[in-house]
């Protein structure tokens, strides 16, 4: 099957736009082709409708009854350890790194640029040193005259 993530009850989604941007919610019910009913117990997002264009589906899915109450969703969320699993994903790590870069001050960006310059100089020096050693070892042996 080409698709792995479906819009379904219990699917955990990442909010990409709006006032709750960057938070996780659980889909509780599908309203129509464009909207879903969501609940975000960990992020303190009250139950309400959201457009599917504002959500990115994750690989996580909770098991709870169709249109379960907020209490049921919260129990399933805690039992599924969604927060811990989310923090381990590459996606969450990239989001955290992006937030960290955005929070850097002008001086922090300057220090980072200087540190990268030093790192790259060391890396280049090591590369050329290894290249030189490899070149010497590949030199063909001259045949001796008899």
From TrEMBL:
Top-level taxon of the source organism: Eukaryota
Gene Ontology terms: biological process: ribosomal large subunit biogenesis; translation
GO cellular component terms, A-Z: cytosolic large ribosomal subunit
InterPro entries assigned to the protein according to its UniProt record, in alphabetical order: Rib_uL2_dom2 (IPR014722), Ribosomal_eL14 (IPR039660), Ribosomal_eL14_dom (IPR002784), Translation_prot_SH3-like_sf (IPR008991)
Residues in the signal sequence: none
Pfam families noted in UniProt: Ribosomal_L14e
UniProt keyword Ion transport, yes or no: no
Keywords: Ribonucleoprotein, Ribosomal protein
GO MF assignments: RNA binding; structural constituent of ribosome
Large ribosomal subunit protein eL14 domain ranges (all copies): 46-120
Ribosomal protein is among the record's keywords: yes
Similarity annotation: Belongs to the eukaryotic ribosomal protein eL14 family.
Name the record gives this protein: Large ribosomal subunit protein eL14
């Amino acid at each position: 099957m080409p698709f792995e993530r479906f819009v379904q009850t219990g699917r955990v989604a990442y909010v990409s736009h709006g006032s709750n941007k960057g938070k996780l919610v659980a889909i509780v019910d599908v309203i129509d082709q464009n909207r879903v009913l969501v609940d975000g117990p960990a992020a303190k997002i009250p139950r309400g409708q959201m457009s599917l264009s504002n959500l990115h589906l994750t690989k996580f899915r909770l098991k709870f009854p169709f249109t379960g109450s907020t209490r049921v969703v919260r129990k399933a969320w805690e039992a599924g350890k969604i927060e811990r699993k989310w923090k381990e994903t590459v996606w969450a790590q990239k989001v955290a790194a992006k937030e960290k870069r955005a929070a850097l001050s002008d001086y922090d960006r300057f220090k980072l640029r200087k540190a990268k310059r030093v790192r790259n100089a060391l890396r280049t020096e090591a590369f050329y040193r290894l290249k030189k050693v490899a070149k010497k070892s590949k030199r063909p042996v001259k045949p001796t005259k008899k």
